[in-house]
Write a structure and sequence with these properties.
heterodimer; A: 593 residues; alpha/beta; FAD/NAD(P)-binding domain; Flavocytochrome C3, Chain A, domain 1; Methane Monooxygenase Hydroxylase, Chain G, domain 1; 3 domains; 8-stranded mixed β-sheet; 4-stranded antiparallel β-sheet; 17 helices; 22 strands; globular; B: 243 residues; alpha+beta; Ubiquitin-like (UB roll); Fumarate Reductase Iron-sulfur Protein, Chain B, domain 2; 5-stranded mixed β-sheet; 13% strand; elongated
């Protein structure tokens, strides 16, 4: 094994990782370790915008953004974290502009903003223009801009180094282990501070907007090293996945005036969210779509509905609402929703300017993850005990700023705000700390696991397990859930994990770019996270945000206004514990859109 | 339907030289993406088949490959365009060393990218808002529109590795790096114009482009690459962005 030494290492090179790297590298020796080239990270697939109460288009206040975030999270959001998110979003977006991000502009040259689900004027309750955007490729531009700045600042990258384990020495983190894809060599990264920014795990589900690489590596790694996972039952289903692939169609489409239509030609969201209609929170709309489909109001009786953004339809509804829509021309759609047009044409053979797009809910975003405090420090238990030197930010982390359901645009805000906090705090810690010695057997455990996979000659191919996991999670732990189904899902995940441990077989025994081994290892991460998700979901006997139970339909603040913390006990056991929700100024009340 | 996929394969640990392998897949759908079929081969038939991929929806830029002789993203190619009996030939992109199967060494490509200083430089203090805090630099809608096309680049290398000038001389910075430079050259917030133009005026810079036009149709993002290169050439000649 080859050993490297850095003050701070950052695992993952998406928005959170690059932001952390930019800040940490100003004062300490940093390396970014990523299984992908940084620009391949899934931040690049974020589309519609990044929320910040700039007030460039109309009156807005960060306090409104904070409240919307709390309400969107169905009051499971830690309110101090939501306040930080909303307040720092403003300077974060301005900073991105200074870094060169090509935001769209208003007539007077300011950053342009559009409407998005759940973002409201808190006085009128109407949608507010808060999502700062660069066409509908905002995530792509954030990722490119941050990577550009990292190049400018000479940040050290280990590209295509796949992180596979964390090295702990007793209770303290000492480094991480990564495989170099190019030649299969194992590398030990000895560090004072370690930042996990490894993204989500949408690949647990069959229909997902997520990249193949979204396999939850970081969350699985910390969990295997004794760190709990928080609020894993809350996984967001985005209402508008393209049918049948599940690719994301941006909420910006509805922000610009697009509407959802069922098989009877009805704009059904008027029934579910009379005030904001198609701009309600994602969980609300995904449930509405699931109900429409279940009650047989899909298009031509099939399992999809329409998202209509044609000028004709949009203008008609805008006129009904008394809004001017002269600007909403084919050219406007082509420039403001360029990616959407390309997606429709390429993958559905439909030009969204002339025809509605077929859509269905798609597994999209992990609200839960590695528990952290507001400074991105990983916490070890429900007393908020900090693990010195260990940090997490972005989708893999649970601050918890998204609570039971994330608002659109807030993932990008999270990356920038908490990625920066992680980088600053990790650097500060690195400056004052000494290296924790590497244990003599550092990396041996994961080395033997990778060797087991490399030489595995059992009878089950990994893809069979992956398919079974994905279809089970899709059918039994989806938009609507019940106890019986989730128990079945949990049992299935346990069986699949046993099969994974004892009977898999792969083909590639080599060392050069062996993705057969690493994809299989990733599957192990997914299985572990799917198991924890099913376990956490079964345990929470209420409905809240993205966790909608048919057998417990109501939110139950009396018993469940608390975060779930799950720990591994022994090889197969799971233990649950709880952490109170931080409430500052917004008392829980009924959630109406 | 049944699809036949012929893949250029090479494993440096076993093979002296690359060879063609043919795979037949049953039960394919016309809407299947080529990437899905490559996955089926890897997952169901031969796990040693090696390729890069991530998002599978045309935005991460991992899976550029040469598909029936054209550089494209495997995740943006649907089976239906090949008719009733699809026969598809897949090779690694050209002009970069092959590491294994469809995976090439991207380092020379990213070195060219870094050479054009692909980042905004602006040393002027930003405007201050009424609350005393920094605000965004203003930019007109027209000024923003000027470089819109080249902000779409995902660094997939499809353009650069379709360019005969790049094949002939790997020192040429190539279309992708010029597209990236264009994005800053024509951004009126940037203050590194002259330095960037100097880099591109180098013998291995923009003048190696012979306007062969392979790059534009190769771009999976629909960027008018040749046009962008032409604009950079004119900016170099004029010594300014608004030539």
């Amino acid at each position: 094994m080859i050993t490297h030494q850095f003050d701070t290492i950052i695992l993952g090179a998406g928005g959170a990782g690059l932001m952390a790297a930019l800040y940490a590298s100003r004062s300490v020796k940093v390396a970014v370790i990523s299984k992908l080239y940084p620009t391949r990270s899934h931040t690049g697939a974020a589309l519609g915008g990044i929320g910040a109460a700039l007030g460039n288009e109309e009156e807005d206040h960060w306090e409104w953004h904070a409240f919307d975030t709390v309400k969107g999270g169905d009051y499971l959001t830690d309110q101090d974290a939501a306040e930080i998110l909303a307040r720092e979003a403003i300077e974060a977006v301005i900073e991105l502009e200074h870094m060169g991000l090509p935001f769209d502009r208003t007539k007077d040259g300011k950053i342009a903003q559009r409407r998005f689900g759940g973002h409201t004027n808190n006085v009128t309750g109407k949608p507010v223009r808060r999502a700062c955007h660069a066409a509908d490729r905002t995530g792509h531009m954030i990722l490119q801009t941050l990577y550009q700045q990292c190049i400018k600042n000479n940040v050290t990258f280990f590209d295509e180094f796949h992180v596979v384990d964390l090295i702990m020495n007793g209770d303290l983190p000492a480094g991480a282990v990564a495989v170099c894809l190019r030649d299969g060599s194992l590398h030990l990264f000895h560090a004072k501070a370690i930042v996990f920014a490894t993204g989500g795990w949408g690949k647990c589900w069959e229909v997902t907007s997520n990249a193949h690489s979204m396999t939850g590596d970081g969350a699985a790694i910390t969990f295997r090293n004794g760190i709990p996972l928080e609020d894993m039952e809350f996984f967001q289903f985005h209402p508008t996945g393209l049918y049948p692939t599940g690719f994301l169609i941006t909420e910006g489409v509805r922000g610009e005036g697009g509407v959802l239509i069922n098989g009877r030609g009805e704009r059904f969201m008027e029934r579910y969210a009379p005030k904001v209609k198609d701009l309600a929170s994602r969980d609300v709309i995904s449930r509405a779509i699931a109900i429409e489909l279940r009650e047989g109001r899909g298009i031509k009786g099939k399992r999809y509905l329409h998202l209509d953004l044609t000028p004709e339809t949009v203008r008609r509804y805008k006129a009904e609402a008394g809004e001017n829509a002269d600007h909403y021309t084919p050219h406007y759609i082509e420039t403001k929703l360029a990616e959407t047009c390309d997606q429709g044409r390429t993958y559905a053979g439909i030009d969204p300017i002339t025809e509605p797009l077929p859509i269905q809910p798609t597994a999209h975003y992990a609200m839960g993850g590695i528990p952290t405090n507001n400074d991105a420090e990983v916490i070890a238990d429900s007393t908020n005990r900090v693990i010195p030197g260990l940090y997490a930010a972005g989708e893999c982390a649970c601050v918890s700023v998204h609570g039971a359901n994330r608002l659109g645009t807030n993932s990008l805000v999270d990356l920038i705000v908490f990625g920066r906090r992680a980088g600053l705090r990790a650097a500060e810690y690195s400056r004052g700390a000494t290296f924790v010695p590497l244990p003599s057997d550092a990396g041996r455990k994961i080395e033997s696991e990778l060797n087991r996979i490399r030489t595995a000659n059992g009878s089950t191919k990994p893809y069979v397990l992956r398919k079974k996991m994905q279809s089970t999670m899709q059918d039994l732990v989806g938009v609507f859930r019940n106890g019986k189904d989730m128990q079945k899902a949990l049992d299935t995940m346990r069986e699949l994990r046993r099969e994974f441990a004892t009977n898999i077989g792969i083909d590639d025994r080599g060392s050069t770019f062996n993705t057969d081994v690493l994809e299989t290892w990733e599957l192990g991460c997914l299985l572990e996270l799917a198991e924890v998700t099913a376990f956490s979901a079964l345990n929470r006997t209420e409905s809240r945000g993205a966790h909608a139970r048919e057998d417990y339909e109501q939110r139950d603040d009396q018993n469940w206004l608390k975060h779930t913390m799950v720990y591994r006990e022994g090889e197969e056991g799971l233990r649950v514990d709880y952490k109170p929700v931080v409430i500052t100024q917004y008392q829980p009340k009924e959630r109406v859109y | 339907m049944e699809a036949t996929i012929r893949i250029r394969r090479f494993n440096p640990e076993k093979d002296k030289k690359p060879y063609w392998a043919t795979y037949t897949l049953k039960d394919c759908e016309p809407t299947n993406r080529l990437l899905e079929l490559l996955h089926r081969i890897k997952w169901e038939i031969d796990g040693t088949l090696t390729l890069r991929r991530s998002c599978a929806q045309g935005i991460c830029g991992s899976d550029a490959m040469r598909i029936n002789g054209r550089n494209r993203l495997a995740c943006k190619v649907l089976l239906q365009e090949f008719g009733e009996n699809p026969k598809i030939q897949v090779e690694p992109i050209l002009g970069l060393p092959v590491i294994k199967d469809l995976v090439v060494d991207m380092e020379p490509f990213f070195a060219h990218y870094r050479a054009v200083m692909p980042y905004l430089v602006n040393e002027t203090p930003p405007p201050i808002g009424p609350d005393g805090k920094p605000r965004e630099r203003l930019q007109s809608i027209e000024a923003r529109e000027r470089f819109d096309d080249t902000t779409k680049c995902i660094l997939c290398a499809a353009c650069t590795t379709s360019c005969p000038s790049f094949w002939a001389n790997g020192d040429y910075v190539g279309p992708a790096a010029i597209v990236q430079a264009h994005r800053f050259i024509f951004d009126d917030r940037d203050q590194l114009l002259q330095e960037r133009l100097d880099v591109l005026a180098d013998p291995d810079g923009v003048w190696r482009c012979r306007t062969i036009y392979n790059c534009t149709p190769a771009c999976p993002r629909g960027i008018e690459v040749t046009r962008a290169i032409g604009e950079v050439k004119r900016a170099i000649q004029a010594g300014k962005r608004d030539y």
